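HUMAN: Mind sharing a backbone?

ASSISTANT:
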Amino acid sequence: MTAAAVVAEAGKEARRTALLLAAAQAIIGSAAPIAISLGALAGQYLLGPDKSLATAPVTGFNIGVALGALPAAAIIRQLGQRGGFMTGTIVTALGGLVATLALFNPSFWLFAFGLLVIGVGGAFVQQFRFAAADNAPPEFKARAISFVLAGGIVTAILGPQIVIFTRESFAPVMFAGSFASILVLSAVGAVILSFLRIAPKAVGGAAVEESDARPLSEIVTQPRFVAALFCVVGSYALMSFVMTGAPLAMVGCGLSTDDATLGISWHVMAMFGPSFFTGSLIHRFGAERIVAAGLVLLIGCAAVALSGLALWQFWTALILLGLGWNFGFIGATSMVAASYRPSEKSKVQGFHDFVLFGSVAFASLMSGAVYNAWGWAMLNWLVFPVCALCFVALGALKVTSLRVAN
């Protein structure tokens, strides 16, 4: 086989892998909008007169993603990506079962624990984008990440529609049907993942040469990694912070639960819709510029949200929030993926997701506290200083890069 044929075959296999992971992202990833859109509302349903902890189940979900990051990376490293990802579907199904039982036997903290377990399953889903990049040639890495995240378009439609059509399936037990559906999503996702052709890693062996691996401390102190982590945390934490409070604010302003759910649907579509071309934009303009564009969109979200409380203002703000997240998250993830060697990927990806989703969990918890104490406006005012800090990180990276070049 000629060198050109080998390259063509590698590109074809990379696209197949990315498409399968995108399909799995679309199905299993639908558990996330179910948990996010209903977590706070179900929390209110299960709580007594004091509703200040209503967003705690959503925080539980995000804590689960953070806590699951390092174990998920270790399991994937041990079992290989195919076996590790299929293990993740079992965890997600277990979380859906626990949350459903908590609603039938009303228990707020058991429900929050169920969402935490769903979040641990979500930590495996978060590894899909890295798997697509790791199994792609260098020129296709950014596009491979975009392919996987583009699966979120289906998630944006499927998750909220499941909520709308199933939340009263087991009435008078509200929302139980939606969380029971997570078991079905997990089973379908496992079937899709079974078609992956990524070679499993032998137990007790190493499929990747480890001799050139650097210490984690050396990798994570690189200026490019530091700036990327700063921006990915800022983009994702702001998205979680504003999005978690949005359904509470919409219902609190007299809008319906369906309005809030559809608002989340538009938001999730905006999160993943641009993924079809974000990779190409990164390839053309560079990751740093795309991240900067995402930060500008996040500022636009806050400006619209502060302009009024009409339905169109909530939905427009949520759409801008999703677009800003897409550019910021994919751009910063591409920067991270370029900062480590193949032999370093497991420990770097695990550390990255642990820091990222730990921050996201804190943001979602603070969302409920800030909303109850100071209202929807304060949630959006806090977007500005965080974006400013991210711009400072990008500027510092630019200065450092110019010094190295000179």
